[in-house]
């Protein structure tokens, strides 16, 4: 594993452990999005050039629009860091059918050197279903608009892309 992947996983575990310790009243299966992503997620290492440039600070919107525009790409959410970002940032990116990540938001360059990603790949229909239900971009950060169903019980069978996640 890369040192940034080790660092990202350590940050996520530290955050999840702290939230688990503080959140004593919830009967949710997962006390945090971090714990949910640690349970289901995987690292995405190989980065390829994006076919389009997204708007800065709009990763969820960029990737939903990319999913609709490029049917050969898959929508992914989770957490990311880079050499210059020391916190686990909630982030979205795209993944092609070879498992290569495409980030139209962070792109390349000094600012995003060492970008490292850990997340889950969603089925297209699930992405559309949640976007229609919440009227927002993003799935994990908007789980509260979906009655916390994901942290309550985990991902439903139809949510995760079968090529990347075994049920």
Key terms for this structure?
5 helices; 20% strand; single chain; 5-stranded antiparallel beta sheet; 167 residues; 5 strands; alpha+beta; 33% helix
Structural class based on helices, strands and sheet pairing: alpha+beta
Largest sheet, in brief, is:
5 strands, antiparallel
Number of strands: 5
Total individual domains: 1
Distance between the termini: 24 Å
Strand content: 15-25%
Number of helices: 5
- What is the molecular shape? globular
Low-confidence parts, pLDDT < 50 over ≥5 residues? none
Query: What's the assembly state of these chains?
Result: single chain
What do you see in this structure?
- With 167 residues, this protein is α+β, with helices and mostly antiparallel strands.
- It has one domain (3-153).
- 33% of the residues lie in helices and 20% in strands.
- Strands 1-5-2-3-4 form a five-stranded antiparallel sheet, with helices on both faces.
- The radius of gyration is 15 Å and the shape is globular.
- The model has no long low-confidence stretch (mean pLDDT 93).
């Amino acid at each position: 594993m890369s040192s940034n992947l080790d660092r990202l996983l350590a940050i996520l575990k530290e955050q999840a452990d702290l939230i688990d310790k503080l959140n004593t009243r919830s009967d949710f299966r997962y006390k945090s999005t971090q714990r949910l992503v640690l349970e289901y997620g995987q690292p995405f290492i190989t980065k390829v050039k994006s076919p389009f440039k997204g708007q800065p600070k709009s990763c969820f919107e960029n990737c939903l629009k990319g999913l609709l525009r490029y049917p050969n790409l898959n929508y992914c959410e989770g957490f990311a860091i880079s050499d210059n970002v020391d916190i686990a940032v909630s982030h979205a990116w795209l993944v092609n059918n070879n498992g290569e990540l495409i980030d139209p938001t962070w792109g390349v360059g000094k600012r995003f050197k060492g970008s490292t990603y850990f997340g889950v790949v969603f089925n297209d229909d699930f992405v559309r279903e949640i976007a229609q239900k919440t009227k927002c971009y993003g799935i994990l950060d908007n789980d509260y608009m979906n009655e916390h169903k994901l942290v309550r019980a985990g991902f439903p069978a139809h949510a995760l892309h079968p090529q990347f996640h075994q049920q």
